[in-house]
Amino acid sequence: MNAVKQKNPSIRRLFSVTLLLLLSCCARVAITPPSPPLDHQAITGIVSAFKKQGVAVRTLFSSGTITLDIKGSESEATVLIVATRDPSKIKIEITHPWGRPLLHILIKGSSLEILSFTEKRLYSGQIGTHDLSRLIPVPLSPELLWALARAYPVLLKYNRVLSLKGNQITLLDQRGDKIQVIDLYPESDLPHRVSFCQQNAEMTFSDFQNNGSIRYAKEIEMNSPENNARLALEIRQMIFNKPVPKAIFRLETPLDFDLVPLRVNR
After folding, report:
1. Is the dihedral of CA 210, 211, 215, 220 positive or negative?
2. Can you give the pTM of this predicted structure?
3. Which of 35, 126, 230, 249 is buried most, with the most CB atoms less than 10 Å from its CB?
4. Alpha-carbon distance 77 to 60, whole Å?
5. Contact, 219 vs 65, CB < 8 A?
6. Are 181 and 168 in contact, with CB atoms under 8 Å apart?
7. 8-45: per-residue pLDDT in tens?
8. CB neighbours of 134 closer than 8 A, spacing ≥ 6?
C-alpha cells in the first residue's frame, strides 16, 4: 500500500508537465496576430483590378444549377442566364430538373417581369417593389443581379475606400457610411465575401476560373439574414462577349396567363 502511494507524486508531476506543454502550444496558436490593414498601394491595386474586370464583360451566357433555401426548406432547379451590360438586360430561365419551366425572369434596368408557369401569371413591376419578396425572397438590385449573373462582384459607386483590417477593403459613401465590404482571399486578392450593407445582403464567391483575361467564380452564394434565405448558383458553363439576339429579351406569355402588377413600396 505504501509503495503505491509513493508513485502518485511522480505521476501527478508528469501529468502537470504534459498539461502545461499542451496549454503553452495552444496559447501560441491562439495569439497569432491578425494581418495588418492594407496600405494605399495595395488598395489602389485591388480597386484597379475590380474596375478592369468590370469592363471586361459586355455579354454573357451561362447555365448551371440554382438552389433556394428558405427557412431550411431547400429546392433545386436548372438555370439559364443571358445578360448584356450596356444596356443592362438580364434574362433568367429556371426549369425543374425534369424539364418543366418554372420561372422566366426578365430585367431591363430597374423594370422587372416574372413569368410564373406554376401560377399561370405574369408579374410586372420594378425591382424593390413590395410584392417581390414573396416571389424571390432575397434582396435584389441591379448591382446584385449583375454580380450574380457575372459571377464576380461589382464595385458600388463610392466616395472613399479604405482598409480596416487585413485582406479587406471597405467602400464608403459621401456621408462616411459603409456601403460595401469586400473580404479577399489572402493568396490571390480575389473576392471571397462581399457585404452589400444597404441591401442587408452578403455574397460569397469560390472556385474561380480564368477565361482569357476574365475571371469568374463557378460557385456563388447570396444570403439574406433578414428573410432567413439563401440562394446558391453553381455554374456549369459560361460564355462571354458573344452576340446576343434582341429576341432573347422578350417574354412569350401564354394567352391564359393573368397579368399581376407588383405593388410599389410605400
Report:
1. negative
2. 0.83
3. 230
4. 20
5. no
6. yes
7. 555 455 455 444 444 444 444 445 567 899 999 999 99
8. none
